[in-house]
Each structure stands twice: as C-alpha cells, then as structure tokens.
Write a structure and sequence with these properties.
By secondary structure, this protein is of the alpha/beta class. The chain is built from 15 helices and 13 strands.
Amino acid sequence: MAISKAKLLRKLLLVLDSTLSGAVYASVCAAAFVIGVLSGAEWREHLFLLPLVLVIAASLSGWSKHSLVGQTFGRILFEMLRFNGILFAAVVAFAFLSDLGATSRGVLTAFFVTNFFALVSVRAFLRWWYFSVRVEKRENYTKVLVVGSGPRAEFYLKNVMPNSEWGVEVIGCLDPDPSKIGEACDGTTVIGTIDDIEQIVSDQVVDELVVALPRSRLNDIGAIVATCKEQGIELKVLADFYDIGAEVSLEYQDRVPLLNFRPVVQDENMLLVKRIVDIVLVSLTLPVLIPIMLIVGAAVKLTSEGPVFFLQERVGLHKRRFKMIKFRSMYTDAEERLKEIEHLNEAEGPIFKMANDPRVTPVGRFIRRTSLDELPQLINVFKGDMSLVGPRPMSVRDVNLFDKGIQRKRFSVRPGIACLREISGRSELSFDRWLELDLQYIDTWSLKLDLEILLRTVPVVLKGSGAS
C-alpha cells in the first residue's frame, strides 16, 4: 500500500512537471506575442513546438527523481536543472533540424529560465507542504508485518522503511524459531513464529506482509501466500535471493511473472537517450566530415591497389557479429601475412600490435596516426552496430583467444568508437589494463561519462597520442 501510494505520487509529480513545462512554454510564447516580440504568424509557428515540449517532458521520467523523500534543496536544484536542460536542448535541436528559421532564441531562452524557476518553486513548495503541513493520522499509517528477523529482514527495515514517502508502522517481525520471540530486529520486536501468521493477521490490522526469509526457508512461502489471499492482505517478497550483484526486476510474458537478474545495471531510458544522441551527432557531423572522407578515400585508392574500405567481422552487442567499416590502411594481403609475423607481436593478451607493421601502407600510417581511418565507423553508429562511445569492438580472432570469462562482459554493451582506452594511453596500454578500463566503463556508465570521453578524445586524436 505504501509502495502503491509512492508510485502514485511519483506519477503525479511527473504529470505536474510535464504539464507545468507546457504551460510555461505557452505562457512565454503568449507574453512574447503581447509585447510584440513575436508576430501573429511567428506566435502560431512557436506553438507548433508545444506538443513536442509535452512529449519530451513526459519522456524524461527516468532522468528526474520524481520523489519528495531524500531531496534537499540543492538536490532539487540539480534534478530540475537536469530535467529542464535536457528538455531545452531537445526542443532547440528539433527546431534546428526541422529548419524552423523563425524560432526565436530569445523566446526559447526565456522558456528555459522561467521553466527552471517554476519547476524549482513548485517542487520546493510541495516538499515544504508535504513535510511541514501535511500530517497523516497514525491510525492511517500502513501497517506492515515482516516475516523474518535475520540479515535480510534487518536490511529491509534499515534501508527501505525509512525511505517511504507515506506513514508506515512495522507492527513486528516473525521468525521460524520460537526462541527468537521477544528479541529485537533493527528496533522491531519479534512477536511470533511463522505458524502464528493466521492468528496475528486476524487479530491485528495488517496492510502489507513482507517476506524477508533466507533461501533455505522459501518453502514456507506457500502457506504465507494462502493466508494473505484468504485475509485479503498485500504480500511482498524480497527478491534478492542470490548475492550476484545484479539488478533484479519483475517482468511479465503472457501473464507469466519472471524475475529478471541483470548483471549489468542499465537504465533503458538513458540507453534510449544515448541512441538518440548517437543519431543526432552523426547526422550533424556527417555533412562536415564527408568532404574529408572523400579526400581520404581518394588518397587510399590512388596510392595502393585494393578497395577504399576495409570491412572486418567484429563481435558486437551480445556477441552478435557485424561488419565494421574502416578506410583501408593495409595492403590487400594483410590477413594472409599475419601468420608470418604473428610471432613478432608486441602486445600482451590476444590482440596483435606491431610498431612498424610491414603490412601498413604509407597513407595507412598517416590515417591511423590521425584516426582518420575510423571515420567510416560513423556509418556503423548510424546503423546501430556501434555507438559513439563504448568498448572497442574486437575481431573474432581476438575474442576466440580470451582466457577469462569476465572478458566477455564487454559484450553486454554496444561497442563504440571512443572509449576510456582512447583517453588513457591507447595502444600504449597492456591488454589487461585495456580490459580493466572497459569493465570500469560498463560498471560506471552514464551519459555524463560518455560526454567526458568524447570531449577528452578530441585533443588526444589531434595530438596522435598513443596511436598505432
């Protein structure tokens, strides 16, 4: 019940943020029309963006923390600035790509500033009202009975209950062992055994029953479920049965409930934003890079026999194979000659690196040093085989030489052009360090990290540091 109320509150806050953003945008456009900044035609053209503002604001639920608990004023400022900043950037990008030439920068800037102060003011007021004015009667608190008194029950009582947005009262804990009755579990008294459930829920007000038993006692859940069903009590079960460091979620497939254990925690909303950013940035940069690519292609074609592009099968997301595109930097018989010089490998691990590789053409050395050979990979990004940022895709040969299972964790994310390795030494790094950085990226991934890698990659590429 408490969780249901919390979900409802978060949905209401999301609707409020979205509606408020739309109202502020419409008000700013109307004010600009009244004071003469916009003509009638320009005002109507600006209003075409209103549905976009509402849709984007509603889709940002994964970005803004729609909650009133644990929100200091500084945190409110940060969350609302992030929410409003992404909304503003998306609207400006759409206006630019849609060639809405009459869109006023002044109006959009005024919307950004006004909307930020409106969002912060409303959220601060709600937080003040929620904790200072609203007083929930104790008899209306959600009454919770916890089944279990061990470490899992203590974890739940210590970490989950204090963060509830609504009044919650834990009436007690139950334990399979009768000798535990009267003992304390994180300040809550053990009031009975599992066999006493039916009697306790019959004699007391119980809104929710939370099962926090160890795996060895999961067979007792059947009787607990039957009692809750009979008494009309909401039942919740802690799903962290296995300490595997995974994100646990519940999914339904044709009404069949499935517990989903994700070893790599990834926010699907953020992944969608990452994909949109990839497409937008590639679309914006290709017109500038195409002339450069034509010059590089011509240089490759005129200085050595063979095709302009080199297509190599690489291993991508979830080990799906794809053809990675690069400007050809080696002679056409490079793959066959690899066996002849493989004993000269200067790199540790399964990858092959050689400072003065005889298979590389003169033009190839230049485009490798300047990373111009990787420009065609933007096509892979646009197709969805790769991302602008992510672990570098490895060849089938290199993957087959992996000697550790953990090395395959890199296939849980989409490979990329730029990565932590690119800004940490590139080819000068050992294979183990390279892998360590890839795993670090996977475990700590965020859009902020992607932006940092992209910004730091530019000077590294321009200097040619660590390139081979």
